[in-house]
Description:
Elements: E1 5-7, E2 10-13, E3 18-23, H1 26-31, E4 34-39, E5 46-51, E6 57-59, E7 67-72, E8 77-82, E9 91-97, E10 109-114
Parallel strand pairs: 2-10
Antiparallel strand pairs: 1-3, 3-8, 4-5, 4-9, 5-6, 7-8, 9-10
Amino acid sequence: QVQLVESGGGLVQAGGSLRLSCVVSAIIFRLNDMAWYRQAPGKQRELVASITTSSSTNYVNSVKGRFTISRDNAKNAVHLQMNVLKPEDTAVYYCNAFPYKDSWWGQGTQVTVSS
Length: 115
């Protein structure tokens, strides 16, 4: 059973920063492109950023220049550094493979940005 554990969410004022982390098993980390997704209240889950096994990255337009996805090979972790946060970034953030695998969704971590 694949377990992805997200952490790092919280409540922050607009303009602030948060760093999300996702720890995965070594084999999952080594073999898969990974991504961060988010789901805001009343909206569909969306892809935020992805990173390949060779660390090539891609971002949804709304976060370009503000968010940075990275891989920590030593810790089998995927991070999402979020800067200049906006109220519209409020959502539950999840990590998963890219493309995602239905059975891999975890609990996510809540990010709330106040105006």
